[in-house]
Amino acid sequence: MEIGNASVLLLHYILQFDIGTPPSRLLVYGYRLKKKVKLFIAYGWNYHSSDH
């Protein structure tokens, strides 16, 4: 998967949550998103380093 496509998908995913989401739920959402981004970066890094 290309970085461009992935970032578009990620952006689409981010924009899916409602504007009226309660702050507590938004915090949980942000925490999960951070974990996903970390995993995504780690996976991407491993993929690129093993590719060479």
What does this protein structure show overall?
This protein is mostly helical. It has one domain. The protein has helices at 3-14, 23-51.
How is the topology of this model organized?
Elements (H helix, E strand, L loop, with lengths): L2 H12 L8 H29 L1
Mean pLDDT: 74
Order of helices and strands, N to C? HH
Helix content: over 70%
Query: How would you characterize the largest beta sheet?
Result: none
Tertiary shape:
elongated
Unreliable spans are none
Number of strands: 0
- Give the terminus-to-terminus CA distance: 16 Å
Counting copies of identical and different chains, the oligomeric state is: single chain
Share of residues in strands: under 5%
Structural class: mainly alpha
Q: What Rg do the Cα atoms give?
A: 14 Å
Indicate how many domains the architecture comprises: 1
What count of helical segments does DSSP give?
Answer: 2
Keyphrases for this structure?
52 residues; elongated; single chain; mainly alpha
